[in-house]
Amino acid sequence: MSARDRLGGWVLPLSLLLALLLGLLPLHAQLQPLRPYWVALVLAYWVIETPSRAGLGLAFACGLIADLAYGSLLGEQALRLVIMAFILQRFRARLRFFPLSQQALAIGALLLNDRIVDAAVNLALGQPLLPWEYWWAPLLGMALWPPLFLLLDALRLGRRD
């Protein structure tokens, strides 16, 4: 096993752990609605680039861990991530060949879909709907997609550019 293979084996779990920790960082109350869904962004990269290692099972497991870490309803984020991973798997062949700007638009649409699923879960539970400020987070996630994609791609492939 080469050094690149050993490093590549750790990039996926470490990146997901870091994404989970980024979601736990405290933010000022006014910035809280703008927090990107880091776990979804990192998981989206892995589902697109390494479908043999990242799929619906990993999305479900990450969602359950995120539910436990963030103190949300058990299974809520698991549902959201599985829906996102399913859509990504369905359109993976097309998304891989889009330029990063078009990939960012697709990721933005997926993150917006995630907010809609989140709102539907809140509505079904009788909880108040999310304030309008929370709908800006998918735009921030869309803007973060190109640098995040390039960073994870460089780590996965072992490039030192």
Automatic annotation (TrEMBL):
Q: Which InterPro entries match?
A: Cell_shape_determining_MreD, MreD_proteobac
Keyword vocabulary terms for this entry = Cell inner membrane, Cell membrane, Cell shape, Membrane, Transmembrane, Transmembrane helix
Source domain of life: Bacteria
Describe its function: Involved in formation of the rod shape of the cell. May also contribute to regulation of formation of penicillin-binding proteins.
Give the GO cellular component terms, alphabetically: plasma membrane
Q: Please report the name of this protein according to its UniProt entry.
A: Rod shape-determining protein MreD
| Transmembrane intervals | 53-74, 95-112, 132-152
Q: Where in the cell is it found?
A: Cell inner membrane; Cell membrane
Which family would the database say this protein is a member of?
Belongs to the MreD family.
Its membrane topology is listed as: Multi-pass membrane protein
Pfam families (alphabetical): MreD
Which GO biological-process labels does this protein carry?
Answer: regulation of cell shape
